[in-house]
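Summary: Need help interpreting a holo structure output

Steps to reproduce:
1. Submit the protein chain below together with the SMILES for shikimate-3-phosphate.
2. Request a joint structure prediction with the ligand placed.
3. Inspect the structure token block that comes back.

Expected: a single structure record containing both the chain and the bound molecule.
Actual: see attached output.

Input attached:
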Amino acid sequence: MTKSVTLTHPSGILKGSIKLPASKSEANRALIIAALSGEASELDNLSEANDTQLLQRLLKSDAAEINAEDAGTVMRFLTGYYAVTGQQKVLTGTPRMCQRPIKVLVDALRELGASIEYLGEEGYPPMKIGAFKGNGNNKLKVRSDISSQYISSLLMVGPMLPQGLVLELEGKIGSRPYIEMTLSLMRHFGVEADFSGNIITVPHQPYKAASYSIEPDWSASSYWYSLVALAHEAEIELPGLRQQSFQGDSAIAGIMEHLGVHTEFTESGVKLMKRKHDHHFSFDFSDCPDLAQTIVALCAAKGISLELTGLESLRIKETDRIQALQVEVLSFGCSLQEVTEGVFRLELGLIENSAFTFRTYEDHRMAMAFAPLALLRPTTIQEPRVVRKSYPRFWEDLEKVEFELTFEE
Ligand SMILES: O=C(O)C1=C[C@@H](OP(=O)(O)O)[C@@H](O)[C@H](O)C1
Ligand SMILES: C=C(OP(=O)(O)O)C(=O)O
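--- attached output ---
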């Protein structure tokens, strides 16, 4: 197992065109919908991300025990899929996955007529899924302030239910663009759905086979934005990204106008160029939680004071991301504190270290958010293999723009 990678960049000048991995969020929805449609859909540009490769394998597997590893979408989407198609499966994951809550989804599926039994702690994987008695209630109230993945999982199986599905979302709607992405892909595969106020209605109807080309991953693009912001000079092209995207993380383009990167949308994708940055930035990450780590690392490095809200879901992701950030920003002499409920402030410090070392907490985004700092100092990232979850070629792509990498076994 590779222990660490140390990165340096001799010139600080970045030029090149990078083929990003495809979005694992889009891919994993398209795979579930294609499996539910029962017809052959043509999915182009499926992600090489482990989360997508894993779901592809699991959907073909007839094993009784299914391991979703550390992939939230795989765990949540397969729970809905197996429950409503009545497949008898034991569904488990990594030790961390077994600490990520799933009660809201399981309660909703049980009301719809699913039989699901917890094999460990109530409310958490592993679970045993059994027969589906599909005459349950189809009008449900569901909390939407913990994870949008529960809602997406329910929506995708909605058209298969005898009476369809009506969801009333309760509480704040976190990660809303991911719910919209689910509905957009469902519509692409021929079903109608309505999202008005906090009510989502999905009538009973068949999915239709369709072809779909998965867009490159806007979340992965965020690391390239950060690299451009930290470089002396830069011109980076990211082919295939679309201005009209299903992905909420395309918000990175607007955010980075404040933090030192201008985006030009071209016929073939985007071109990133350096520009002046603000000295203070405030942002609500409720719609795009996966961008928070990139922005915290970048602002700490560039000395941009930062106020963040909408971080509630970060504590139950691959790691407790707030805690991980609080520890790692100490390398810059910075501190990340909750100043009033839900409001975090990054207090700036002095960068005194001659080199950086960052821990990654089994979280791909910790590795990729902090790697760009190698443009300032030699930077060591521990457990670099974590990137395989969403962006397995991340280290090779850095080599393409002349980073020098030394792996330690
Ligand atoms: O539906 C999806 O594809 C995702 C939804 C988000 O999770 P939450 O809804 O749990 O915030 C996001 O953080 C995750 O990376 C992918
Ligand atoms: C939170 C993430 O993934 P998931 O919840 O699907 O494991 C992520 O990729 O940042």
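--- end attachment ---

Reviewer comment: The chain has a mean pLDDT of 97. The radius of gyration is 21 Å.
Status: needs-info
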